Amino acid sequence: MTLRRLLSLALLAFAAPVAPSAAEDAQPFKVQFDVQIASGKTGAFVLEVHPDWAPLGASRFLDLVREGDAFWKGVRFFRVIEGFMAQFGIPGKPDVAASWRERTIADDEVKESNKRSYVSFATSGKDSRTTQMFVNLVDNANLDMMGFSPFGKVVEGMDVVDELYSGYG
Q1: How many domains does the chain have?
Q2: Is the pLDDT of residue 41 over 90?
Q3: pLDDT in tens, 47-69
Q4: Which residues form the PPIase cyclophilin-type domain (predicted)?
Q5: Is 123 within 8 Å of 148 (Cβ atoms)?
Q6: Where are the alpha helices (DSSP H) in 9-157?
């Protein structure tokens, strides 16, 4: 099943996607991100989510998808480090961001490596994942031993992710 949504993403703003039903939750699914990269240029990338890789991470991502515009409106890629990763997932509305801050999820076992195009949730320590996630721009196997468990991978449009502005770090 493909979840399609638009993001006005100066770097990211999503319109509410149609989420899989409960029976489909354990199956891989896809979400398309349509993004504005630079100078009005737009592109798209598709994230394929694998609940078997990181069940808690995939479930959290699906929760965020189901929130629709309430969560995604105003979300931006706020940290892009060339040769490392591109991070996003903080809601644009401060009250929405605050409502998710304490809703942490436990760590998943690392079953897949943080290879180029794989997506993991950011963490500030054990069992502290919330809504921030990142796309690995290169192979980052060193993150595996630090507990960053990929829950999906970009299967189309990695060239678009590579074009995200990294001038701010």
Answers
A1: 1
A2: no
A3: 999 999 999 999 999 999 999 88
A4: 32-164
A5: yes
A6: 55-67, 69-72, 94-101
